[in-house]
Each structure stands twice: as C-alpha cells, then as structure tokens.
User: Which sequence fits this backbone?
C-alpha cells in the first residue's frame, strides 16, 4: 500500500505541472482552451488528493461548502461579457477572503506558540489579503456603478492612507516580537480592511486596469504567503504564478499610461485639472452625418477602428461587427487598434470584439497598428478619448504627456464618434478633435454605427 | 527542521516566480482578460488549506472559518474556469471562420 501522504504529494506535484502548462498554453488563442482543461484537471486532482488527508475527521461541512461554492460560482461564471471587469474584481475579493480566513484560523490555532518568521509571513498574508478583500469589493462596486465612479479626494488623503498602512505594519512587527498580544491581531486585520476601502476611494475609472492588475498581484502574493505558513509547495507555486501575472499586467498598464504605481495609487488622476480646463479656446470643429461618413468609408482602402470604453458602455460591439462585415465585403481592409488601457481591465476590448465574432487576427495592439496608421485612409475612433490624444506626444504641459498613444492623427482622415464635445474621463481636452483631417460624428456610438451600416448596405437595417 | 522547510519554500517561491514571469510574458495581450480569470481560478487552490482546516476540526473557530473559506475559493474555481472557457471559445481566427 502506498501511504496517503505519498498520494497527496503526488497529486500536488502533477497539479503544479498542469498549472504551469495551463499558463503556457494560454500564450496563443489556438491552444488556450487546452490551458483551461489542464487547469481544471490539476485542480480536481489536488482537491481529491487533499480529501485523502488523514487528519480529516469530518467530511460533512467540506461537502456542504464545496457544493455551496459551486452553486455561487456557476452564475459568476456566466455573467455577460460587459460585466467581466467587475466579476474579476469580485473574484479577487473571494480569493483574498479565503486566504485571510485561513490565515486567521491558523493564527488562533498556533498563537502564542508561533515563530517570529511564521508570524511575519502570516501578517503579510492577512494584511495583503485584508486590503485586497475590501479594495476589490470597492473596485467591483465602482465598476458596477453602485458606487460613484469619480475619484473622491480630500486634503491629507495620502497622509491618512500611508499612516494607516504604517500602523498595520507596526502592529504586525509588535505581534512578531510579542505573539502573546493576541488581542492586537483583530486590530491589525481591521486596519488592513479599512485601508483597502481608503485606497480605492481616490481611484477613477480610467485607472481601473492598473488597479485590478495590482489587486490581482496582491491576491497572488497573499496566497503564496499562505503557502509558506502551511508549508505547501503547491500553494506557493500557484500563488507566485498569480502574483507574477498580476505584476506583469500592472507594469504593462502603468507603462501604457506612462505612470508609476505610486502615481496611480496616490495620484487621483480623474479630477479635472483647473489649469488645463481654463486654457480651452473656441476652435473650429468639423462634423459629419452618417451618410457622409459612409461615403468616406466606402472610398477607403484601409480602415482602422479604434474602440474604447465608450463602445462597451453603448454596447456597440455587435453593430461594429456589422460595420466590419459591410466594409470587408467591399474589399476594404479593416483592422482594429487596441490600446493596452482601453476599457476597464487588461484585454477588455479584445474580449468584447471576440464576443461579436470579429476574428482575433484583426485585433492589433498599439505598436502594430501605429506602424500601419500613416498608410491608413480612415481611422474611426469609437468611444476612445485619452488614448488617442496627440497632446501626449506634443504638449509637455499636458497631464498625459509622455503616455504612449494610438497615432490616429496620422491617418488621412480621422472620424470620432462621440456624444458631445465634453472632455474625457481624465478631464483633458483632446486637440485631435480640432485637426483639419478630423471629422466629428456626434451621437450614440451604437446608433451612429448602425446608421453608417444602413447607408453602406443600402438596406433598411434592423434596430 | 524549520529552517530547512523555510529554505525549501523560498527555493520553490523564487523558481516559481521566474517560471511565472517567463511563461506569462509570452501570453498575447489579446488574452489578458482570460489570463487574469484563469490565474484567479488557479490561485483558488488555496481551497486545499481551507479543506484541511474545516476537516481537522481542531477548534470551532478554525472549522467555521475554513468552511467559509472553502465556499469563497470554490466559487472562484467554478466561476473562473467557466468564464475563462467561455471567453476563449469566442476567439476565432479569420482562417478558421466561416466566410
């Protein structure tokens, strides 16, 4: 007979291999679904292996909890694609909740007989976990628009936030040195929970891609810390993979906004900068009707469509697909240019366009489309603003100066679908709209695209 | 004994982080949303720690916290894998697509 511990360790070892393969297969859309399969098998093996653990005396609550979790998980896996950012934020909160609860249980089982090293790691686990729970819930609330999306700032905000974090760390240090001061543990976790809320209060919608990635990284790191506490290599590997993924995405997002992590967390970007707002003068804007837009598009050879969060809000992705079909049928080359921070989470636009059945090889990232734009006849901007703002290249006084942008202004004609001339989320005026080669298409993204499609296909359209 | 465990854990952590960076850097930006939901589901492997807590029943508090932790992690596993697969199913190349 093979002892149970060997069976458990073997299932964990296989699970680790499958988890790494799972992420490796995600490198290309062609093999990505194998990745999900590998992850599922690895997970199932690890869970079944764990059930063989000798120390388990009672299976009743495990079974009930597994079933209950699955019942909650199914609807969370079947949300609409437009709700994916808030679902992701919510799942970071659940992951961190699990880690924090396990850490707390371990603390009360072991304290005060807990080594200094163990207590340090455990504190790291529950502080990161605690702030990720409430921080992610706040982010999900903002994305779901239950909470106001505008950043809320007050005087001394950074001082208050950093002060709170410092107190939590100080308590952690005290607990490491004096593990019998057990009454301080709930205070430490409580402060971490409040800090999570305060950390997200000043964050605006445009910063969500970075913040979600950071929270992802924290959730992973806290799980890895839990692996140290439980001496579980499986958990350390899964946690560091998740942490690494969140970290890489955060770095990508920050680079795409030309900002540092600290600037995202402490910058409160979303307020309207008064100096910039005052500098706006009356300038000429040229606008066009759907008929004019359609005739310009049909005369083009190469068209680049630039989607932004406005397309997601207007749910215009299916109409955009009809436009893509109508143009492609006429032999026009249509590509999509996607900025890394377009939308509310990394890759948000790609998922929405894939949902609308647009082939993924037509979705180009910023560097690829920027090489094409000078040879493009029409760049059609749908619901994107700051990521197309040429001031980021030319105006050192602009708050977004230095941010890499999609060079739509280099296309022969630029068309921008926009509700009105109001500034974008960051409150920054966009000189693109006043260029000689720019035409403004005023209206709702979905309706305007629909009108263009009707003109192009010559049919009555449907809705 | 404790220090050996610690160093073993640190080796695993560092090597896994390196593998993570190398593997994830190669993920196309196209798939960054599914990447996040998949790593989130994998991260919910923390459920194994929760299962042991709930099953060992060393104290009522530990069993209760462990049980809640199982619910939270399982919902991430189930929800995370479902939505990742739904998203990946939608990504089609123009070569494989019907005309």
Assistant:
């Amino acid at each position: 007979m093979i002892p149970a511990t060997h069976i458990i360790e073997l299932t964990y070892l296989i699970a680790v291999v499958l988890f790494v393969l799972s992420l490796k297969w995600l490198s290309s859309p062609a093999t990505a679904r194998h990745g999900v399969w590998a992850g599922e098998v690895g997970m199932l093996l690890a869970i079944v292996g764990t059930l063989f653990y000798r120390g388990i005396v009672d299976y009743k609550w495990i079974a009930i909890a597994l079933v209950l979790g699955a019942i909650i998980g199914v609807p969370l896996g079947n949300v609409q694609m437009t709700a994916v950012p808030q679902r992701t934020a919510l799942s970071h909160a659940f992951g961190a909740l699990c880690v924090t609860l396990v850490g707390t249980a371990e603390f009360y089982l072991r304290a005060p007989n807990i080594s200094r090293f163990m207590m340090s790691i455990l504190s790291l686990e529950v502080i990161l976990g605690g702030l990720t729970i409430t921080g992610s819930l706040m982010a999900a609330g903002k994305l779901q628009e239950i909470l106001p999306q505008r950043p809320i700032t007050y005087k001394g905000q950074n001082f208050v936030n950093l002060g709170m974090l410092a107190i939590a760390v100080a308590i952690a240090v005290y607990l490491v040195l004096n593990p019998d001061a057990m009454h301080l543990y709930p205070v430490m976790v409580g402060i971490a929970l409040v800090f999570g809320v305060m950390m997200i209060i000043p964050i605006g919608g445009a910063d969500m891609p970075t913040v979600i990635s950071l929270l992802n990284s924290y959730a992973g790191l806290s799980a890895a810390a839990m692996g140290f506490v439980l001496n579980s290599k499986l958990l350390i590997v899964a946690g560091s993979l998740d942490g690494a993924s969140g970290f890489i995405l955060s770095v990508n997002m920050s680079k795409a906004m030309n900002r540092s992590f600290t600037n995202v967390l402490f910058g409160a970007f979303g307020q309207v900068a008064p100096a910039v707002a005052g500098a706006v003068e009356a300038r000429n804007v040229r606008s066009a009707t759907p008929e004019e837009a359609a005739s310009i598009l049909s005369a083009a050879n190469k068209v680049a469509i630039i989607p932004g969060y406005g397309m997601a809000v207007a749910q215009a992705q299916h109409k955009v697909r009809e436009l893509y079909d109508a143009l492609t049928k006429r032999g026009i080359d249509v590509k999509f240019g996607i900025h890394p921070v377009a939308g509310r989470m990394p890759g948000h636009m790609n998922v929405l366009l894939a949902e609308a059945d647009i082939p993924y090889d037509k979705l180009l990232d910023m560097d690829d489309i920027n090489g094409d734009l000078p040879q493009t006849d029409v760049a059609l901007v749908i619901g994107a603003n700051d990521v197309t703002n040429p001031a980021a290249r030319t105006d050192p006084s602009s708050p977004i100066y230095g941010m890499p942008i999609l060079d739509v202004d280099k296309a022969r004609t630029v068309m921008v679908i926009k509700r009105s001339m109001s500034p974008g989320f960051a409150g920054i005026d966009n000189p693109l709209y006043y260029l000689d080669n720019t035409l403004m298409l005023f209206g709702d993204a979905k309706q305007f695209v629909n009108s263009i499609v009707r003109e192009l296909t010559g049919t009555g359209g449907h809705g | 004994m404790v220090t050996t465990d610690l160093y073993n854990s640190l080796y695993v952590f560092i090597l896994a982080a390196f593998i993570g960076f190398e593997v994830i850097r190669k993920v196309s930006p196209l798939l960054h949303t599914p990447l996040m939901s998949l790593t989130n589901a994998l991260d919910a492997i923390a459920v194994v720690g929760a299962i042991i807590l709930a099953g060992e029943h060393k104290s009522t508090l530990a069993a209760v916290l462990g049980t809640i932790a199982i619910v939270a992690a399982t919902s991430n596993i189930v929800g995370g894998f479902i939505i990742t697969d739904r998203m990946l199913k939608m990504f089609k190349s123009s070569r494989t697509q019907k005309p």
User: Anything to note?
Assistant: Residues 28-90 of chain B form one domain. Chain B has four helices and no strands.
